[in-house]
Design goal:
Helices cover 40% and strands 16% of the residues. The strands form 3 sheets. It has a 7-stranded parallel β-sheet, sandwiched between helices. Strands 7-9 form a two-stranded parallel sheet. Helix 1 links the parallel strand 1 and strand 2. The longest helix has 22 residues.
Length: 330
């Protein structure tokens, strides 16, 4: 049996694939492009089996054939466009087609192929304006008020997944993934918001100067390895009860990103960074400048999962990864 990850050559997909391969699973990556050389090199040393299939999730016949050919029993349909305002203004139809209609097509194919569990890829973006309150956001009581088209499509994905899962008798769980950074992040052209951690690492490796804003608000980031571990936990969780789970660190990191800049400066002496109150000078882009509330992860904790990486551990691990995978920065 196999696990298939669509959009599997993207940021989260590669982290999940690496974690699955590390425990000896057979993993099928389905995407428009092939994994880069750095990922193939790293994954070849792991005990699992990697299969790469190139294709479009909107091609129902081809995707269905891949599910059957590889006896896929678990599916992470993560192919998506993480869109910003410019892309949403210029190509809203494509964002909706890939993120929502592409997902529904994959879910139908999974039903027909007898896939036993599907993890629907939602996002913290579904909370939208609720992010800017003070109370931790939980899956049951916090209103979902998405503003960007990406958040709108992700909310539609999770509600469609739960409704169709019920109608079709499928085992579907929706995962609201927080703001992620860490290994395998790169510029694929499909993510309009790359983490400031990646931007700093890119500049450090290139020996360029970086300028961060003078004020850095509270921000509940989550390390990519924790996201992968949580998704694997949900893949195998027995009798989950609730069908929607937040995945985040439960920690407001905010200005702790300055520790990441300091670590990079120590590792790469040519790298220089500073902060500035002048927006025209700032080179490191944040997706939001307002303080964000925490995402509650009580549901995951009740199911037996805990994040392993706080800021200090995450930065140490990520720095080791950056040094070992300079050609994977993208």
């Amino acid at each position: 049996m196999s696990v298939l990850i669509s959009g599997g050559t993207g940021f989260v997909g590669l982290n999940v694939a690496e974690a699955l391969l590390a425990r000896g699973e057979r993993v099928v990556l389905y995407a428009l492009d092939a994994p880069g050389p750095a990922a193939l090199r790293a994954f070849s040393a792991l005990p699992g089996t990697l299969v790469v299939e190139q294709g479009d999730v909107r091609d129902h016949a081809a995707f269905s054939a891949v599910l059957r050919r590889h006896a896929v029993d678990r599916l992470l349909p993560f192919a998506a466009i993480t869109s910003g305002a410019e892309r949403e203004r210029d190509a809203p139809e494509r964002v909706i087609e890939v993120n929502l209609l592409g997902f529904v097509a994959q879910l139908r194919a999974a039903r027909d192929a007898g896939v036993r569990r599907v993890i629907a890829p939602s996002s913290s973006a579904v909370y939208g304006e609720s992010f800017f309150g003070t109370a931790p956001m939980d899956e049951a009581t916090t209103p979902c008020v998405p503003t960007g088209l990406y958040g709108v499509t992700k909310y539609a994905v999770e509600r469609s997944a739960l409704r169709l899962g019920s109608l079709w008798g499928m085992d579907v769980i929706a995962a609201r993934i927080g703001a992620v950074f860490g290994p395998w992040e790169r510029d694929t052209g499909l993510r309009d918001f790359l983490s400031p951690h990646w931007q700093l690492a890119r500049d450090a490796v290139a020996g360029r100067a970086a300028v961060l804003p003078a004020e850095i608000s509270a921000y509940p980031w989550v390390y990519a390895r924790d996201v992968a571990a949580a998704l694997l936990h949900l893949l195998e969780l027995r009798d989950p009860g609730p069908r929607v789970f937040n995945i985040c660190s439960g920690v407001a990191w905010g200005a702790r990103i300055l520790d990441w800049a300091r670590a990079l400066a120590t590792a790469y002496p040519a790298f220089r960074w500073r902060q500035s109150a002048d927006p025209a000078e700032v080179t490191i882009r944040f997706s939001e400048s307002r303080p964000r509330a925490l995402m509650a992860i009580d549901r995951l904790r009740a199911g037996g999962w805990q994040p392993r990486f706080g800021p200090e551990a995450a930065y140490a691990d990520y720095l080791d990864w950056v040094r070992a995978h300079v050609d994977a920065q993208g």
